[in-house]
Amino acid sequence: MRDPAGVSAAVESAGSVWIAGHVNPDGDAIGSALAMRLILETMGKRTTVFFQDKVPDDLAFLPGASEIRPPSEAGDSADLFLAVDTSSRDRLGSCEALMARCSRTAQIDHHGTNPAYAQVNSVDGSAAATGVLILEQMKALKVALTADVALCLYAAISTDTGNFSFDCTNGEVFRAMSELMEAGLPLAELNMRLFREKSRPQLKLLGRAIEHLFFAGAGRIAVMTLSRRDFEDCGALAEHADTIVNYGLETLGTWMALLARENGDGTVKFSLRARAPLTVDDVAESLGGGGHPRAAGISIPGILEETTRRVVEAMEARLERETDLEEER
Ligand code: 5GP
Ligand code: MN
């Protein structure tokens, strides 16, 4: 349930706030955290943003991104720990230890699977992005929208709506966008930056993934894999694979898509996607992961080929349970 008043009360009684988000942060996690930091600093709160993993290069331009710290640099504690865009406590990674050191905890999130793990929880699985909830929170705190906050919230909202194309995109998203535009958002420039420009390693990695594309589930599941070798050959980072799974789902005849990538620490990260009415959060959860109905993820220890086979089998089983798919797309 959304609880902007509850989060406001927690924030107002705090002098210092630690903000953190999930491992392998995306635009919604980083944008929401940085927007919240700007809002809290306007209110005179001492605020630091922590992430376990580094900020993806394409988000490094966001205001305050260079001041994001790893949890190892945190002091003893803060008055309030605020998690954003993080579906479960363990998804904080090493930032979970910071949460344990704060006596007051709150969170703002939009994952339907969120178990309300903080003392104060403003969570709504029907919100398209955490960024939408941050805008609502800003109003509850009676802070005015600035151009910098608009920039951060655009990064958040545009990321999680797939540049305003996923089926989570709703009227609230466009009402929020209307406010961001009024605050002076340079939309065309940012859109180019976040959704169209690609680095050379990113493009090479996409080539590798497409080269490895195969189909399972009687042709209805598109599967791509990326080994450490692929990342090394292309000079690419993990973040460069972040949107590749969409190419699988965009292939005609496909209902589900999977991207498997070797993390380099003995685990394999899986990105699962589905077209309505199919869902993949249930598949991911059954294997220990989570996410949203049409976009979910999981990391599994093991060998690329073997773990991929297991996830593909679980997706095939999910596909077989769905009886009312149109035969052809
Ligand atoms: P992506 O495939 O883009 O990394 O993630 C898609 C969605 O699944 C995101 O909303 C993310 O929060 C969730 N997700 C990704 N990896 C994991 C994971 O290992 N565990 C859980 N619980 N959720 C994940
Ligand atoms: Mn999100």
Structural class: alpha/beta
- How much strand? 15-25%
Helix content: 25-40%
Q: Which CATH class of the largest domain?
A: Alpha Beta
Bound molecules: guanosine-5'-monophosphate, manganese (II) ion
Task: Report strand order across the widest sheet.
Answer: 6-7-8-9-11-10
Mean pLDDT rating? 96
Q: What string, H for helix and E for strand, traces the elements in order?
A: HEHEEHEEHHHHHEEHHEEHEEH
- Provide the low-confidence segments as ranges: none
Major beta sheet, specifics?
6 strands, mixed
The CATH superfamily label of the largest domain reads inorganic pyrophosphatase (n-terminal core)
Cα distance spanning the termini: 37 Å
Overall geometry comes to globular
Radius of gyration: 20 Å
Main features:
Diaminopimelate Epimerase, Chain A, domain 1, inorganic pyrophosphatase (n-terminal core), alpha/beta, binds guanosine-5'-monophosphate, binds manganese (II) ion, 6-stranded mixed beta sheet, 5-stranded parallel beta sheet, 12 helices
Notes on the structure:
The protein is of the alpha/beta class and 329 residues long. The protein has two domains: 4-196, Alpha-Beta Complex (inorganic pyrophosphatase (n-terminal core)); 200-320, Roll (Diaminopimelate Epimerase, Chain A, domain 1), CATH 3.10.310.30. It contains twelve helices and eleven strands. It has helices at residues 4-12, 27-42, 96-100, 130-140, 147-160, 171-182, 187-196, 200-211, 228-234, 245-249, 281-286, 304-321, and strands at residues 16-20, 46-50, 80-84, 104-109, 120-123, 214-216, 221-226, 256-262, 267-274, 290-291, 295-301. The strands form two sheets. It has a six-stranded mixed β-sheet with strand order 6-7-8-9-11-10, sandwiched between helices. Strands 2-1-3-4-5 form a five-stranded parallel β-sheet. The two termini are 37 Å apart. The site of manganese (II) ion has 6 residues, from loops.
